[in-house]
Amino acid sequence: MKHKLSTLVAQARGGRVVRTPFLDGDDIDRRLLTGDDLNHRIAGGFPDARRVILTLHPAHIPEVESGVQVYRVTPEDAAPHWDAQDFSVQLRRLELDEEQLGDLREDRGDFLIAATGKAAQTLAALTELGGRQVTVQPVGESAGKSSKVREVVVPSMRVDVVGAKGFGVSRAYFQQGIDGGKVRLNGSPARASSEIREGDSLSADGLGRIDFKRVVNETRRGNFKVELDVHK
After folding, report:
1. For the chain, percent helix, then strand, then coil, each to nearest 5?
2. Domains of the chain: which residue ranges?
3. Concatenated DSSP letters for 134-202?
């Protein structure tokens, strides 16, 4: 990150809308993003994106664009078949600014790529890549299926408990994902016993991402009603 996050936060609290280039989600200290006078948006074009753009803005601005655009690139059918690595090699030959490129995913012979700025404009106008004709279609700000705010009741703030409840799967199934290294808390591999807190982000390969919004209240039985933003 070229500028310290604390500096960007101060600029946003001062009334500016501040946006980073694509960066590793692990580099964002979400503890600095709290406060009634500050709003933020983290987007990478995919619910479980590794590379993301952080947009900070003062609380009086209700909503801002993510700055991310996802494109579906379909190469003509030719031999040899391209996988994601082959496509990435051809993409680098365009000499696009890597800070303007996010995650790349292969999808049934097509390629989904998140981009911003001039890199997004170049991709949108692309007709040929690596000697092959390509068709480019804009997908939108996200290739995810949906986002829904849910309120659920959980007995604890453990990652395995909140994750299973939020995604609507069994704890045993979610535990398998944790054991397989497919679940990340704020970008780092999660442990079942880890606790999730307000402002944290929990992502699971194949399931999506949960942004922990807030604890609504504690029930009489000692459980917690929590608000989750679930991206699938």
Report:
1. 25, 40, 40
2. 5-58, 69-140, 147-231
3. EEEEEEES--SS-EEEEEEEES--BHHHHHHHHHT--HHHHHHHHHTT-EEETTEE--TTPBP-TT-EE
- Could you report how far apart the first and last alpha carbons of the chain are, in Å? 28
What superfamily would CATH give domain 69-140? Answer: RRM (RNA recognition motif) domain (3.30.70.330)
Which tens digits make up the pLDDT trace of 50-92? 899 999 999 888 888 888 999 999 998 877 889 999 999 999 9
pLDDT tens, residue by residue, 177-214: 999 998 999 878 899 999 998 888 898 887 888 989 89
User: For the chain, what is the radius of gyration of the CA atoms?
Assistant: 19
Provide the CATH topology of domain 147-231: 3.10.290
pTM surpassing 0.90?
A: no
CA distances from 163 to 135, 183, 194 (A): 38, 9, 11
